[in-house]
Write a structure and sequence with these properties.
The protein has 309 residues and is mostly helical. A two-stranded antiparallel sheet has the order 1-2. Helix 3 packs across helix 14, helix 4 runs parallel beside helix 8 and helix 8 packs across helix 10. The longest helix has 35 residues.
Amino acid sequence: MKDKNVPRAKKANVRNRTSQIYFHLMLLPGMIFILIFNYIPMGGMVMAFENFKPAKGIFGSDWVGFKQFERLFSNSDFYELIRNTLVISLGKLVIKLVVAVAFAILLNEIKTMWLKKSVQTIVYLPHFLSWVVLAPVVFYMFGINGTVNSVLSSLGVDKINFIGSNDYFQGLLIGTSIWKEFGYGSIVYLAAITAVDPGLHEAAAIDGASWWQRVWNVTLPAMVPIIILMLAIDVGHVLSAGFDQVYNLYSVRVYETGDILDTYVYRVGLQQRQYSFATAVDMFKSIIGLVLMLSVNGLSKKFLNRSVF
């Protein structure tokens, strides 16, 4: 004898699938955008193995194999570019992580709602401004005749060429980037903190734990999965040290410490029209980013029994 509930279950499944269609249609524009601007351009990576000539096109250009990569690794500037990119990118990644987590913990302690929202708005705002807009502000603040140097002069200290000196330029890039992004980056950490069971804090307080002990033993362990996830995402872009920021702030005088892989690709690829070589540099960067991302995921599985993706 057939179960009478079976047809009802089938109808319910059909209705459920039908209702899901609308949600999938909402995702369609975003998927089309990603397909056009992220996946289709991957076909252009074949230029890294060619001597690409625009007049001949991808299919008509001469195949040269790994010649562009051999040129890349034998380039005397390559290791300087890698060093600059890693110093700037890792400086941003590590310090921004620490500052964003600390800010989220402190912000969560503000109980006055209007003050909390005001601080959030002020700190988040720089994220939404382009470096095209912020670069003149940085020049005005840290230029040789800027506000900071005016204050230093009034205190009897010699002026410092922050923007035109190789000794200070990397620190300027890291510091201004953290100022711009740490507030917005703290959003996910603040969400992780609010998800912590208040009963754990109450129990710790009853046991005599101080505020710092509660943060260290309750709050931070609860944030570990989110920290690992954000770290994995950021590590995948470790060779992208922020083209828009560097391009709008650097000059020939600071190429020694400020020139990164992305700005080098721009100069070689678009200005000097060495398309195949620039593609090889960018492909190398993408492969390293993929390897690092998979490595972080593997370490997370091994030591924390958590998979990032």
